[in-house]
Structure formats: structure tokens, C-alpha cells
Amino acid sequence: MRFQQTPTRLAWVSVAVGLIVLALKFAAYRLTGSVALYSDALESIVNVVTAATALVALRISARPADANHPFGHHKAEYFSAVVEGVLIVLAALSILHEAYVALRAPQPIDAPLLGVAVNALATLLNGVWSWVLIRFGRRLRSPALIADGKHLLTDVLTSGGVIVGVGLVAATGWLVLDPLIAILVAINIVWMGWSLFRGSMSALMDEAPPGVVIEHIRQVIAESAGQALQAHALRTRQAGPVTFIEFHLVVPGEMRVAEAHALCDRIEASLRREIEGSMITIHVEPEGKAEPGRGFVV
After folding, report:
1. Fewer CB within 10 Å of terminal CB in the chain, N or C?
2. CATH code of the domain containing 122
3. Which domain holds residue 254?
4. How many domains does the chain have?
5. Would you call 41 helix, strand, or coil by DSSP?
6. Statement: residue 62 has pLDDT above 50
7. CB 157: neighbour CB atoms within 10 A?
8. What whole-number distance in Å separates Cα of residue 49 and Cα of residue 93?
9. Who's near 91: CB < 8 A, 6+ residues apart?
10. Cα–Cα distance measured from residue 230 to residue 251, given in angstroms and rounded to the nearest whole number
């Protein structure tokens, strides 16, 4: 199995899992008439749409670089996460509308035990699949899979609260609890959508990788620099599974071009071993370009 095919296959399974969960949660809603279960089912529609969006984004991001996109198509995954955020907020607004109607005229819940059981089965399936997506998304450095997995994990927590709430409505007869729980679900969904949107926009703005990754890059350069005098103007950014690394390498004036080229090859090989999916650009400069009074890697 080729590397670029793995995220796509996981995304296909996400669509299938989303459809199964959607069917189960809507069955739970139809059995009970609960607005809280309706809110949970509506979020499952978002799950299916976002899984399909992630699938399209992954297929695009897997395309090789071409004349119009010389740095590849990796950022397509971040657009997927932005779309997820927007759709999640729209779903929350729909839930709030239904909750408002139910608050004005609370309705009793039918067959609560059966409805909760069906919803719990769907929640268990979502929980297992969210764990799979987050685990493999991190391993494959796929923002789309990680975003989808975290979305499902939040859905699992939300569904757990809904199940408890519907149980309380059935046990106490407090019908107003049903739309109130739906409102809490909507607020949670809005927060989740905003978090996804904010994280994706940061990536689209070429945000640098975490500080620990940058420090590791500095260390690898310093340990493999050989006769080089200094490395400065280090710049990094991430796009999907790719980490772009650029810096200037100052070498002794007497170093031959072939020697400098071989040194750059060694540094690039070390970085690729340590920083998976890295794309490296090194600009060689003579010793007069070194920045005095600064460390080796600036």
C-alpha cells in the first residue's frame, strides 16, 4: 500500500461509518421524538458531509507537484477543516431553532430506553473510529484525518451527555430538560467548529511548526554541518504532512563547490531522516556572510 493511498482509504471508511452512525441516530430520534437526540442526529449529518469533504481534500493533496503548483497540493487538507468548521456552526444554528420550538411546547419522549440503546450503539462505533482516525492521522501527519477524528471524539462526548440527559428526562418527567440539553449540545458544537476553523486558518497562513520541532531541526543541522561555519535565516512552515525547511549555510571561502554541494546533501539526508516529510532548501554563502556574535544556527 502506497503512503499517499492510506489516508484516502481511511477517509472512505469514515464516510461509510458516518452513514451507519447517521442511520442509527436518526432511528433513535424517530423512536423517541427527543429534541436532544435530534441534535445528536443532525450533527451526524455534518459528520458525513465533513468526511466526504476530507476525502476530496485528501485526494487533491495526494497529487504530485505540477507547473501550476510547484510546492504540491498539501494545503487542500486545511480547506477541508475550514469547511468542517463552517458546517458545524450551521448545524448548531439548526439545533438552536429546534430547541427554541421545543422550549415553547415541551413534548414527552416515546420509547426512551430503546432510543437510548440505539444511540449508545452509534456512539460506541463513533468512539472506536475517532480513536483510529486520530492515531493514524498523527502517524501519517494528515490534518484532515486528525480534524475528522477530533470532531468525532467531541461528538462521542456530546452523545454521552445526550444519553444521560434523555435518561434523566425519562426518569424525572422534566420535559424541559430535553431542549435544554439540545442547547448545550449546540453551544459545544459552535466551540468545536470555531476551534477547527481557527487551527486551519493558522496553517493556511504558513504558521511555523511547534517550538520543539524547530529546536530539533536546529540540532540536526548543527550535528551534521561538518565544516560549515554557521547556518542562519532558518525558516520553517508546515503544509499537511510536509515540513518546509529553508536556511542559509555559511562555508569557508576556500571550500570547493563540489565539497559544499556534498555537505548540503549530508545535511538534507539527516533532516529527512529526522523530520519526516521534510522539503529542504539550502542557500550556500561564503564566510563573510556569517553573523558575528550569534550562535551556530540562527
Report:
1. N
2. 1.20.1510.10
3. 211-289
4. 2
5. helix
6. yes
7. 14
8. 17
9. 42, 43, 45, 46, 189
10. 7
